[in-house]
Amino acid sequence: MEFKEIVMSRYAVKKFDGRKLPASKLNELMELIRFAPTSFNLQPYKVKVVSDQKTKDLLQKASWDQQQIGTSSHVLVFCADTNIAALIDKLEGALLKSGASEESIKGYVQMMRDFEKSMDQAQKLAWAQKQAYLALGNALNGSKALGFDSCPMEGFDPKEYSKILKLPGNLVPTVVCPVGYAADKPRPKIRFEAEYLFF
Amino acid sequence: MEFKEIVMSRYAVKKFDGRKLPASKLNELMELIRFAPTSFNLQPYKVKVVSDQKTKDLLQKASWDQQQIGTSSHVLVFCADTNIAALIDKLEGALLKSGASEESIKGYVQMMRDFEKSMDQAQKLAWAQKQAYLALGNALNGSKALGFDSCPMEGFDPKEYSKILKLPGNLVPTVVCPVGYAADKPRPKIRFEAEYLFF
């Protein structure tokens, strides 16, 4: 499917039909998310994948009872990771393991550490959340590319989500993306005119 | 091009070859950005399109002198729009103009107004910026889909950008995306393992 067709046919599904995605499809989607663009290659987020009905029902209650959650195949909960320092260590380790010399990555690692030190806790969260939205974009377009559907959702209670999913303090539920097969139909896309949006 | 190929071959270009994109290609890219997923259909951002060399050179100086800017064909400056209330009015007008009845959109419009009122200025900016990143995602994948290249950039001085581009106070430069034809080669993508990223 051409990217333009993906962009134009993707929509925010309000109800799924409950069918389960094949494991192979879900794995393909995860690869598309994993290789999303990400600043410094740092991927300051993790994605909780929920498939059991009981947990989905709890999440739905913490999401204004929106049925996209309960009727989906899987719910992806994009969690910003505010422990940026640990991610820098992890990335440095991965680079060294991949064969890079300490000398060759020194400047890059220092740049990341300086960036991390320049942010307070709120700024770290805001930055990580923006990165999570880039990954979300690949989840939304990727679902359509792979032949199924999705819905980006901001209407949920992050604190309730943290409790239900027993998340550690550094992982902040940021945006939710149920995926599966649509049981509704798209409405025409409403967008501002190009002459307004671009200037 | 399949979406997977787009995702795997796209990379952050460090130097472009200076060639200009045909206007038709740029227009196609703008349509892919315009139809990016966006919360409430509100598109709380505008995109400044810069093609003249003099302005690009000024922007490069305000971007740690990174040559992606000056060597690109066009620079897209994604600006978050913090005047959410005005956007809600604009969207309401567009919906009525498209034939929707006032009654049918009343609940939707009220939901947006309540959402807008629930946020302080910093929260409005943070929300609009996250939405801008969804649009950025389509710019990055869209460029590759259309046969050219791009680079997402956070390393720039938003205040300097505001001055150079004479932006009104409600438009906050959030992320920059030069586009054009690459004059460098991609390096292997480094990403955390799936077993870590998904849990």
Quick synopsis:
The first copy, chain A, is an alpha+beta fold and 199 residues long. Chain A contains nine helices and four strands. In chain A, strands 1-2-4-3 form a four-stranded antiparallel beta sheet, sandwiched between helices.
What descriptors fit this protein?
4 strands; alpha+beta; 13% strand; 50% helix; NADH Oxidase; 199 residues; homodimer
What's the layout of helices and strands?
Two copies of one chain form a homodimer.
Chain A lengths: L2 H7 L13 H12 L10 E6 L2 H9 L5 H5 L2 E8 L2 H14 L4 H16 L3 H25 L3 E2 L7 H7 L6 E10 L13 H4 L2
Antiparallel strand pairs in A: 1-2, 2-4, 3-4
Helix pairs in contact in A: 1-7, 2-7, 5-6
Give a written overview of the molecule:
The structure is a homodimer of 199-residue chains. By secondary structure, the first copy, chain A, is α+β, with helices and mostly antiparallel strands. Chain A has one domain: NADH Oxidase (3-Layer(aba) Sandwich), CATH 3.40.109.10. Helix content of chain A is 50%, strand content 13%. Chain A contains 9 helices and 4 strands. Chain A has helices spanning 3-9, 23-34, 53-61, 67-71, 84-97, 102-117, 121-145, 158-164, 194-197; strands at 45-50, 74-81, 149-150, 171-180. In chain A, strands 1-2-4-3 form a 4-stranded antiparallel sheet, with helices on both faces. The radius of gyration of chain A is 18 Å and the shape is globular. The two termini of chain A are 30 Å apart. The model of chain A has no long low-confidence stretch (mean pLDDT 97). At the A-B interface, α1, α2, β1, α5 and α7 of A face α1, α2, β1, α5 and α7 of B.
